[in-house]
């Protein structure tokens, strides 16, 4: 699995380090795929209502649309459990005159799994520009990078600009345990939102509110 360090994005009340921006225009969120031109890129958020072997039906608030998940290893293994989940899809509109518009997924964020799946190397750079990135309060930070070590409720992360410690003790669930889909391990690419603190040893620490795993499915 490819693990590329991305960037550290600091809230406006702190010194800002430029975030990575994506090459393609994601389009308007929840724009109707039936009105978008064939081949255009679109972002849709909503609830999964049903699945097939290689598609799922998404209720994006203005209607239903089929999302194509051809050759996604993750979907083949886990797709049947998705109905009822909230997801965010970034993909290309496939408007076949005889079949109606569909969306060919390039990346999918599954809220219940705390995981963002992307299907190409480019997509790992889109995280901070999509709505899967949570809204942060003044003074909070978003740090994206590679996990370099773990112990107890803490793990270290290399953002490319610096290394820091992430403490998950105040989160609503434990991403460090061996339960559930998300289990933070060394080598994982993650995006962390939380409060920045300096401890007595002058090392930077983030008290995490959210941890999202970024998982490359491009091998499929």
Automatic annotation (TrEMBL):
Cross-referenced Pfam families: BOF
Coiled coil: none
InterPro entries per the UniProt record, alphabetical: BOBF_sf, CarO-like
Signal peptide stretch: 1-23
The keyword Signal is annotated on this UniProt entry: yes
Alphabetical list of SUPFAM superfamilies matching this protein: Hypothetical protein YgiW
Protein name: Bacterial OB fold (BOF) protein
Lineage, highest ranks first: Bacteria, Pseudomonadati, Pseudomonadota, Gammaproteobacteria, Pseudomonadales
């Amino acid at each position: 699995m490819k693990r590329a360090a991305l960037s550290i994005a600091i809230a406006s009340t702190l010194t800002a380090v430029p975030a990575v921006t994506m090459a393609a225009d994601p389009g308007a969120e929840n724009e109707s795929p039936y009105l978008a031109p064939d081949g255009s890129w679109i972002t849709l958020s909503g609830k999964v209502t049903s699945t097939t072997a290689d598609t799922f039906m998404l209720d994006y608030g203005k209607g239903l649309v089929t999302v194509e998940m051809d050759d996604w290893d993750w979907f083949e293994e886990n797709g049947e459990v998705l109905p009822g989940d909230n997801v965010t899809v970034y993909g290309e509109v496939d408007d076949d005159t005889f079949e109606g518009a569909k969306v060919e997924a390039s990346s999918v964020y599954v809220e219940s799994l705390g995981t963002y799946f992307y299907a190409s190397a480019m997509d790992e750079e889109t995280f901070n520009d999509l709505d899967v990135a949570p809204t942060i309060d003044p003074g909070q930070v978003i740090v994206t990078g590679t996990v370099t070590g773990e112990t107890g409720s803490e793990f270290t992360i290399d953002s490319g600009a610096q290394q820091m410690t992430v403490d998950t003790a105040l989160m609503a669930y434990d991403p460090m345990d061996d339960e559930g889909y998300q289990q933070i391990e060394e080598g994982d690419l993650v995006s962390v939102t939380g409060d920045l603190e300096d401890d007595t040893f002058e090392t930077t620490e983030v008290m995490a509110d959210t941890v999202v795993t970024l998982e490359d499915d491009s091998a499929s």
